[in-house]
Design a protein that fits this description.
Strand order of the largest sheet: 1-4-5-6-7-9-10-11
Distance between the termini: 10 Å
Structural class: alpha/beta
Number of strands: 11
Strand content: 15-25%
Order of helices and strands: EEEHEHHEHEHEEHEHEHEH
Radius of gyration: 16 Å
Largest sheet: 8 strands, parallel, barrel
């Protein structure tokens, strides 16, 4: 059965929501699990309702406008956090390990393939999650001159235990996941987590495709997709 992993985006000490990665338009999150955008309160209720782990994006850190690591650490005591805080290299990955159970290395912020290799050389795979960020059908990797196909070749060599396939263009849109991306990553199915626009009607088909887990934000907080 497919695992639903709740998503929380943090900004200025609050849980926020928005669409398609346009972060300057994000607003305080209105969640079915809490009357306030307090991320610790939301995480606590999610845990009580069956959440086994949580994906957190620290948008302030990703945008280089500060961080919410104190809140991340509190939530990590409630349940394991998979944290995206804008890792760019080995040092920023190592620092974040003090605050969360798993650290995401996202193509959006990664400085180079050499730094990715250095992370895998030094740390166990069960602490590393690689996020393949897609925007408008292309790999989002502003610091690297690399195609999606070439990045996939590097992934095959590294053989991560967990890979997020994140279609940023679909985030918060309720349009459903880009199914063509799944076909492109079919040989990674055992380690894939999907994120971006997931809707209730496609959970069954994703399960049938062999997807083990999905990251759900908007549809979960609106009460459209249950945790279990």
């Amino acid at each position: 059965m497919i695992q639903i992993i709740p998503v929380l985006d943090l900004m200025s000490g609050m849980a926020v929501s928005g669409k398609s990665g346009n972060r300057d338009t994000y607003k305080p999150l209105k969640s079915a699990y809490s009357s306030s955008p307090d991320p610790v309160e939301i995480a606590s209720v999610l845990k009580r309702n069956g959440a086994q782990q949580i994906y957190i994006a620290d948008l302030d850190a990703i945008e280089k406008k500060g961080s919410n690591l104190d809140l991340v650490q509190k939530i990590n005591h409630i349940m394991p956090v998979m944290l995206d805080w804008g890792v760019k290299d080995l040092l920023s990955f190592e620092f974040a390990l003090e605050f969360a159970s798993k650290i995401i290395v996202a193509t959006e912020t990664l400085k180079s393939l050499d730094e990715l290799q250095a992370i895998f050389d030094k740390f166990p795979k069960d602490r590393i999650v690689v996020s393949v960020d897609i925007k408008n059908g292309k790999l989002l990797a502003p610091e690297m001159d690399i195609s999606l196909d070439l990045f996939k070749e590097h992934l095959r060599e590294l053989n991560p235990s967990q890979i997020i396939l994140l279609d940023i263009s679909k985030v918060g849109t309720h349009e459903g996941f880009n199914m063509s991306l799944i076909d492109e990553f079919a040989d990674f199915n055992d380690s894939l987590m999907l994120g971006g626009g997931i809707i209730p009607s496609e959970i069954k088909s994703l399960d049938e495709k062999g997807i083990k887990s999905v990251l759900v934000g908007s549809a979960l907080h609106k009460g459209e997709i249950p945790l279990i």
